[in-house]
Each structure stands twice: as C-alpha cells, then as structure tokens.
Amino acid sequence: MGRIVVTEFVTLDGVMEDPGGAEGFKYGGWSFEFSRGDEGDQFKLDETRSSEALLLGRVTYDGFADAWPERDGEFADMFNNMPKYVVGSTADASRWTNATVLAGDAVEAARRVREQHQGDIVVHGSARLAQTLLEHDLVDELRLMVFPVVLGEGKRLFGETSEKKTLRLVDSRAVGDGVLILTYEPARADR
C-alpha cells in the first residue's frame, strides 16, 4: 500500500492560496518573494524523485496542466511522466499526460489510489482535497514549507475538523531566506 503525502507552501498564518501567482489572488506569488536556497530546491527535487504518483484536486490539476507540459528539465519530466489522479468530476484528463479523473467520493477514490501504489502518492496544493484527507486520517505524512510572511487573508490549509488531529514532528530545518521545512506524521496509536 502506498503512502499519501501532502506537501504545501504555507505562510506563517497558514495561508496556502496562490503561492505561485497564477490564480489572481490579491497576494499571489508570495512564495517567490523568498529564496528557498539550494537546500530548499534540493528538498523539492528529492521529494519529486521519490513520488510515485500525484493526487490532485481539480483546481490545482488545471493550474499544473496549464504550466508543466510546456516545461522541460528533470523536475518537469518527472511531473509530466508520472501517473496523476484528479479528484473532481469536471476535470479533463486529456489536458496532461497520464492523468486519470477519479469518479465518486474523494475519500474512497484516495483509498483506491493508495491500494494501487507502493510508493508516495503526493498531494500538492489542492486545499479542499488536503483538508478532506486530513479529516479522514488518510495523510501519512505532511510536509510544510513555511514562508516567513503573514498575509492576514486567503485560503488556509487547515479548516474545521470533527476532532483533534495530533501530529508528530519528524524533521525540521531552515533553508534559504528563513523558510522552514517541517515534516509531520500523524501521532496515531497504530504507529
């Protein structure tokens, strides 16, 4: 069985909306105001190298499908060639190679994808999907790249949950211009 890994760019106040500036958010592109440094760039490259598949919400999929097929290089080649699963019945799988639209309930779809793989199934962005996976205890690892900025508004990673979700910090480091990389696992009794 694979592992579902949620990886996010977030601000100090938990905003994850439009870090790259392509969505028209008032503060879009905020992540580009800071250097991740060589170590931060290497972290993202290593993360992609260890990814077996992508699991994405429709909005993130559409943004990635607009951007990645036209890019080249090792990172882009890996993104473009690996299997991609999209939660969202209105997504168009033909927009990006190796994409499959998952019909039905997002939780059941994520479980099916997890059963089909042995490695890391990585969720980038995809706020609503990430929140749903966290709510249903389907996240095996949470990787946060926390940028030293407070936006005060915008879509946040963490929403309401039905119960407390305790996490265990398994790795932390500062890179570049004070960007923190924090890696958590659920602190569940079965671990």
Contiguous runs where pLDDT drops below 50 for at least 5 residues:
none
At CATH level 3, the topology is Dihydrofolate Reductase, subunit A
Q: Name the average pLDDT.
A: 95
Could you give the distance between the termini? 15 Å
Shape: globular
Number of helices: 5
CATH architecture: 3-Layer(aba) Sandwich
Radius of gyration, taken over Cα atoms and rounded to an integer in Å: 16 Å
The tally of strands reads 8
Main beta sheet: 8 strands, mixed
As a percent range, the share of strand residues is 25-35%
Give the count of structural domains. Answer: 1
CATH superfamily: Dihydrofolate Reductase, subunit A
Quickly name the level 1 CATH class: Alpha Beta
